[in-house]
Structures are given as C-alpha cells and as structure tokens.
Amino acid sequence: MNGADSDSIEGMLLSLGMEKATNGTADLVLYNTCAVRDKAEHRMVSELGEVAKAKRLYPSMKIGILGCAAESLRPSLENRHYVDLIQDGKDLEEMKEAVLTLLPDEIELTPDVLSTHRAGHLSGMVPVIRGCSYMCSYCIVPRTRGLQRSRPLEEILQETEACLDKGSKEIYLLGQNFLAYGRDLREGLKPEEMVRAVHDAFPECRRIRFLTSHPHDVTRSFLEVLSSLPRVAPYFHLPFQSGSDAVLKAMRRITTRAVVEKKMGWIREIWPQASISTDIIIGFPTERASDFDDTLSLVDSLDLDFAYSFLYSPRPQTRAWEMGDPIPHTEKVDRMTRLQDLLGSIWSRKNAQWIGNTVSVLVEGPEKSGKANRFTGRSPSWHPVHFTSDIDPTGTFVDVKIERSGKTSLGGVHV
Ligand code: SAH
Ligand code: SF4
Description:
Layout: H1 2-15, E1 28-33, H2 38-57, E2 62-67, H3 68-72, H4 74-78, E3 85-87, H5 92-100, E4 123-127, E5 129-130, H6 141-145, E6 149-150, H7 153-165, E7 170-174, H8 191-201, E8 207-211, H9 220-228, E9 235-237, H10 245-250, H11 257-270, E10 275-282, H12 289-302, E11 306-311, H13 329-352, E12 358-366, E13 374-378, E14 384-388, E15 397-405, E16 410-414
Parallel strand pairs: 1-2, 2-3, 4-7, 7-8, 9-10, 10-11, 14-16
Antiparallel strand pairs: 5-6, 12-13, 12-15, 13-14, 15-16
Helix pairs in contact: 7-8, 8-9, 12-13
The chain binds S-adenosyl-L-homocysteine and iron/sulfur cluster.
C-alpha cells in the first residue's frame, strides 16, 4: 500500500520537473511510513536522526513524514523541530496536497497536478480499497488508515493504465481486505468481477496479482473466476495468524481453524495450480505453548508454499494493547525458530518438485551476489528465481528452466 502511495507521490513530483536525488543533498526528503509493528516505527525514527544531521548541513532541506506512523507517532514527531510535515496516510489526495506545501514557490503547479501520475516501477501497485473495517484486536490499520473505502472500478482501471503506460510489467491489486471489495459501493461489484474487468481491459498486461485475502471471505465463486483468468498469477496469500481457536477468538479474527482448513481446501480443489502463503503472528498475549503447537500442526497439514511470521508487537490503541506483552521475547524467538524449522523442511521438499519445469520469470535485475550473468526475478507462483543468462533480461519476462531448489528460492538457466 505504501509502495503504491509513494509511487503516486513520486510520479506527481516528477511531473513537476523534479528529479530523484542520488546523493545526500536532497531538497525534499519524504518518509512514507508503516506502523503495523513497532520495528518499522523504530527504523523510521532512527533514520530520521541521520536526516536531521543532513539538514544541519543543508538547512533549506524539507522533511516530511507521511503515512501510518505519522499518525501513530504524531506527538513525538511534533516535538522534532526539523520535521516540516506530518501527514497521515488515510487519503492519498490529502497526502499529495500536503507534499505540495513543501515545494518552493517558484515551482509552478500544473492544473492536473493531483491527478493520476505514477513514477512507474516494474510492479505496478494499484490499491482497490483503502482502510479496513475489520477489527482484529492486534491491528493498528483500521485506526491509522481508517475504515474500508472501495475505489470505483473506473479509478482502478485508470490507475492500472497509468502504471502500464509508465512501464509496469505486472499489476498488484491491493486491499487490506481484498475480498471485501465492493461491499461499500452502491453498485455492489464483487471482487471477482473487478479482477475480471481489469484482466479483460488490459490484455497486454501479462501478470496480475492480488493481496490480501481474509479466510472468512473466500468464496467458491471468487476461486472459480480467478482460476479461469489466464493472466492472473496462480498465487493466493491467505493469512490465518494462528492455528488455535482460542487465540483466533482473542484476536477477533472472526474465523476458526476449521474455516481456515475449509477455505484452504477450496483453493486446492478449485485452483490447484495456485501456490499458497500465509501470515502468522507468534506470541500473541494469550498464546499458550499448546496454542502454538496448534499453529505448528496447522502449518504442517496445509503444505504451504510460503509463510511470513511476525513476533507479536503490541500496538497502542488496539484492543489487545490492554493485554500487555506477557510472553518473554526469548520464548517468542524460540517459537519462531521451531516454526522456521518446520517450514524449512516443508519448503525443501515442495520446492524440489519444481526441478525440471520451465517457468516464466519477470526479471527484477542482477542477482544480489554480484556474480556475472546471474539475475533474479519471480515466477508466477511467487517463487524467487535466481538464474544464469547470457543477455541482461532485466524488466522482461523470460523462460527459466529450474535446475536447483532451496528452502526459499529456485535456481535455473534462461532457455
Ligand atoms: N490485512 C491483512 C494484514 C495486514 S498487516 C490481513 O488481515 O491479512 C500484515 C501482517 O502483519 C498481518 O497479517 C499480521 O500477520 C501482521 N501483524 C499485524 N499486526 C501485528 C502486530 N501487532 N504484531 C505482529 N504482527 C502483526
Ligand atoms: Fe488488520 Fe485484520 Fe484489517 Fe487485516 S483484516 S488490516 S489484520 S484489522
């Protein structure tokens, strides 16, 4: 979500003739921040110290803090005299208007300055919903981003087009609660109808992804439509957070383990080629050792392709905040290690099944190792693929024959 907003703000500034700074002397420094866990907030605050030092050397520099942590950390940010702007992330247009107030007077604003501009990144991020109306007890999102507002289809199509025009090769349709799309729209469009409309409007777009889905809202109709759209990548991110009914209840997740199992079963049945991932929170205040064992047993039975796990981080003004953070950090880390060990063994086995297949990879760039002729991208199933190629295929789709597999990635050669 932040990526999408940042791309839009960046696009606006570029349209006004600004350039992206490549060294430490920018005229304008913007942080678009996350508040989902305290770690993200801490990182922003510590980076801010560095920018404050730069501003001492270059006093005309303007510093703006945007997004969720601008809201959650407002009182402490207001005490920092070097911060010129604090603007929450509820409304993109308001964010853009706020950023414009930081520009020097000599910059002439164009009449269309607030309309859809995108800087253009390989993956075009298109929010289809802003905010969330669910009330998971650990989650700060409804407070920082507000209640759910689905965007009308025309706006989604317009923004997708803007991304593709600026060179994006794949589109991510984004919502905190993707499957609730349309509930708040008068025309009552269903999420599968919206995805189909985007799919059919842009035949040149070879890959469409969507994030994030709540198990409660998975329907057979959604799966049937999505599995029939050839350019929707076969990948389903379905966070379940915990395998224990008692913890799910305390989390106010409105689902049970049985619902999660049923919905995962539907995905396997209706869209068998889809890889599946989840999010798991470790160390929620009421999570006993036996609850965590339930999470392990659920993970073990679901044969997931990926899982993102997070140590519980208490967030002020959420319902769970009052429960404190009673599980010691060492215990949380120990549970995390056990989960990672289990996931590692599942993925080693599952990823080996890709060996011998040829997959279409959207190439992000040279491999981080810096080795000659090595590149990295993602397969339709979301697997990172590292491969050898004689030419530099960055920014294009290439076929890669998988020859090796690891716990978290696949390896191969451009064919
Ligand atoms: N809307 C998405 C999740 C958005 S936040 C959904 O409901 O699936 C992304 C992930 O961050 C969540 O799935 C959860 O696993 C994690 N998360 C959210 N709040 C957290 C907290 N307070 N502590 C630790 N992890 C958290
Ligand atoms: Fe947060 Fe729950 Fe909404 Fe996801 S569904 S954004 S976890 S409140």
